Amino acid sequence: MRINSLVASPELKKEVATLSPEESHHLTRVLRIQSGQEIVLFDGEGHVAEAQVEIVSKRNVTARIIRRFFIPEPTVQIDLIQALPKPDRWNIVLQKAVELGAREIFPILTQHTLFRPNEKQQARWEKIVINAAQQCEVRWLPRLHSVQTLNNICSHLPRYDLVLIGSLYDGAKPLQTILKGKTPKSIALFIGPEGDFTEQEVQLAKNAGAIPVSFGKRILRTETAAIFGLSVLAYEFCSD
Fold this sequence. Notes:
By secondary structure, this protein is of the alpha/beta class. It is built from seven helices and 13 strands.
């Protein structure tokens, strides 16, 4: 298994990079890394380096950089705007959103949102995003925003070329039909909570430019809908 570690950007410019105490602890206590072992370092902004571990201690791991390279940013930005589900389902959404290439993730509160997070949970979510990026070799770390209201997020939608909202209401068109012939450079995908968006919330998003889309005849759970929608968008626009 190739080990990937997130490091601060300045460390990748040094001959010997020093990992954070938290990452050092994970490498030594969980992964049992050894001196001389090769690892991959990345900063979450496309800069990557192959390195060889030199010093291994409980709170300090250093690695000598062997080779540096750069991975360009994805040409199409796909952002996920997800109504907060229950914690176990949200953890899944975060992991899969990172794997499927979401660039920004916006958790939002809606009328049917039952879960209200605290600051400690936000910190835990950040760790889930980092761990998913390390495991899946995602070189551009997604930005996880703080929890926002639907009204607030709708005010920022004009910056996107295409805005989609998963909807179970009449008038929603098949996702694949909406995407046909389009070449957007930025996409926002709304996914509703357990119980879906209200009709008023869908209308609010429509007024801000969102297009209601259907994911098929089946009713998908909120985490499944997020995975399905992101998968289709990644297939259509990020196949490279």
